[in-house]
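Hi all, a correction to my earlier message: I attached the wrong file for Sodium:solute symporter family protein. Here's the right sequence:
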Amino acid sequence: MNDGSPLYLAFLLGAMVVMLGIGIWVARRTSSGEDFLLAGRRLGTPLLMGTTLATLVGTGSSLGAVGFAYENGWAGALYGIGGAAGVLGLVWLFSDVRRHGFMTFSEEMSYYFGASRVIKGVVSVILLLASVGWLGAHIMGGALYLSFLTGMDPALAKIVVALGFGLYTVIGGYLAVVVTDALQGTILFVGFTVLAVVALVHTGGFSGIQEGASEEATSMLGVEALGVLPALSLALVIAIGVLATPSYRQRIYSAADVKTVRRSFGWVALLFAVFAVLPAIAGLAARTIDPTLENPDAAFPMLATTVFPVWLGAFLLIAGLSATMSSGDSDAVAGVSILLRDVTQLVTGRLPRAENMVRYSRIALAGVLALALTGALLADTILDFITLMISTVLSGLLVASLLGKFWPRATWQGGLAAMVGGSATALAVENVAAWSQFWGNPSIPSLAVALVAGVAVSLATPRSSVTREEALRLLAQERATLDVGTRLRGGADGDTGTGAADAGESAKTDPSDPRS
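and the right structure:
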């Protein structure tokens, strides 16, 4: 066990008490499902920036990026570049969906395809599993760090990390996530800046960190170490993760209005692009200090215990765990929103009653956390799992969302074909060694096949007869049942919109339901 482990554990316990206190404080302000799952849809720029940035700096882009840079040098910065590109893509392509009052990505996807129940059902199951998978990966990343620093048994460390963000999330809901994320995001930026600067000084500056790495690793963005296509694929797969992961969509749905989304995400993209270089510096420094690490994911905690005094290492413990907790809590709430809003309806044929939403949300959160923890206890690797999941699940989903939003001829059958084609291609590339080595990861071929499949099947199937206005009305009727999102608090330009409750009320007078 590390000599500083008692201090590390004391810092961890103190941080958990603070987060739990925030959860209890926020719980007093939570009276409805909309409050618990979407913070009342009134997040302003500071909180939206803080929570989005903290979620973006997750297990992959912090601990994983440092480990990746340990092996591949400046290629570790590709995580930040891909993430910033993904956020800008959200601003450009999807920020305007805030005005429609959606609650889940499944609901948004259904809207694109004529309020199709088939699309909503399939996407909801896929995204629920993806959210649980993301959550398990964050638990694994935090546990690896905690175990390295304290000598704690890895299985016990996973349980501690899950409880660390699980308690305040279950108690306070999404608003607790947002407030704690803002705090954790500040700690993250300060912590990683300190880590990179001190590590750089410790190794003798840029010339020192480059001496410990290969010439290929120190090339521009590590392209010579990875190859052009694998480097592009890495940045692209991170961007896809941002564009099609439900937790980022939930940031859009919970914002006060479209202008807030665009302003906040613009700042987040800029800050994350700046952040991109920090994990790369840390990874290169770790390589110079100790080139014999068996597990590259341990590069970050190794620096905290080797380069820094114990008290500073303890602070970095909180910074590292903040990266995992601030992403894990978001995926947990996103998964519960999908479970209660979409999967429950798919299985039972009805939605939970509004007065039961907070209680059901807390129960569902506990269940989702338990499921993710079980998966984390059975798994060993982190980043390979994350990149495979994105390529397999999210590439086709992104293509389907783009076709549905921007191509009027897209059909729900074409949307399904895009998702199936993308997933099948990703699995094929991963299982053929030569293909996997050539592409780096399956994101590029997965996107290409998904696009061809989506267009071809859409052209071969009948055009939807449901207009966008009718689709909104049908979805608003369902949403009004939950009393979630029934009143929009801001539109694209300060317009409050018609309100989902009004749309839902008018839908009750029309028995027609042309959805698939």
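Sorry for the mix-up. The two ends are 59 Å apart (CA to CA).
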